[in-house]
Amino acid sequence: MSSVEDAQPLFSHLLELRNRLLRAILSVIVVFLGLVWFANDIYAFLASPLVERLPEGASMIATDVASPFFTPIKLTLVTSVFVAVPMILYQVWAFVAPGLYKHERKLIMPLLFSSSLLFYAGVAFAYFVVFPLVFGFFTSIAPEGVQVATDIASYLDFVLALFMAFGIAFEIPVAIILLCWTGATDPESLREKRPYIIVGAFVVGMLLTPPDIISQTLLAVPMCLLFEVGLFFSRFYVRDEEEEDDAAEEQ
């Protein structure tokens, strides 16, 4: 009898998870259907930082027969996920919130909101600051006699990788707050490790970006600044003994 009763909550949780996933996927599909008509315009907007810096008479090319069709569609799908992130995060929140303690619910919702904003900020920083500098550098150092003509699919893969790198890197303040809140570390300990973290930021910048010093530095420097931001706010999220006693009482 008890095994049947135990199976019922598990089944209800799985059903709830399925419904939340379906709603998240449906939100992406709805956005995609609204944007797919403008797929070529979206790609043109994404490509403008490179196209504006190509030599006179040069243009982007498609080396695969299907690339002119599938590449803008792929970008539109990624854009749809990007636009639907608030709805996706809401579904995540609605699923996990009932199982959280009161003090955890107060923390998770602001972190979901701030992490979304920071990811968007990282992508915007890459597009408006990094891309013009990187593509201006790349197109200016082409050897004499070499025509710069970038494949549209390769360009999309390149910029999406940079978007992910900068979007994830901008989540550093959230990561630091979570580490301090869970007790894995504390602001003072992180402050003492600052020199190692700065070196680590440049190593991460080297690993996550193309092999050029400009994009590496443009990723590492914001990471260092965001570390300081996270360090500042983390002192407000250090769990004291009273908070831990409250958590124990809620259990």
UniProtKB/TrEMBL annotation:
Superkingdom, natural source: Bacteria
BP terms from Gene Ontology: intracellular protein transmembrane transport; protein transport by the Tat complex
Keywords linked to the UniProt accession: Cell membrane, Membrane, Protein transport, Translocation, Transmembrane, Transmembrane helix, Transport
This protein's record includes keyword Cell membrane: yes
Pfam families: TatC
Coiled coil segments of this chain: none
Transmembrane segments: 21-39, 75-96, 117-138, 158-184, 196-214, 220-238
Topology within the bilayer: Multi-pass membrane protein
Gene Ontology MF, one: proton motive force dependent protein transmembrane transporter activity
Cellular compartments annotated: Cell membrane; Membrane
Quaternary structure note: The Tat system comprises two distinct complexes: a TatABC complex, containing multiple copies of TatA, TatB and TatC subunits, and a separate TatA complex, containing only TatA subunits. Substrates initially bind to the TatABC complex, which probably triggers association of the separate TatA complex to form the active translocon.
NCBIfam families: PRK10921.1, tatC
Family that this chain belongs to: Belongs to the TatC family.
Its job: Part of the twin-arginine translocation (Tat) system that transports large folded proteins containing a characteristic twin-arginine motif in their signal peptide across membranes. Together with TatB, TatC is part of a receptor directly interacting with Tat signal peptides.
Protein name: Sec-independent protein translocase protein TatC
The organism of origin for this protein: Photobacterium aquae
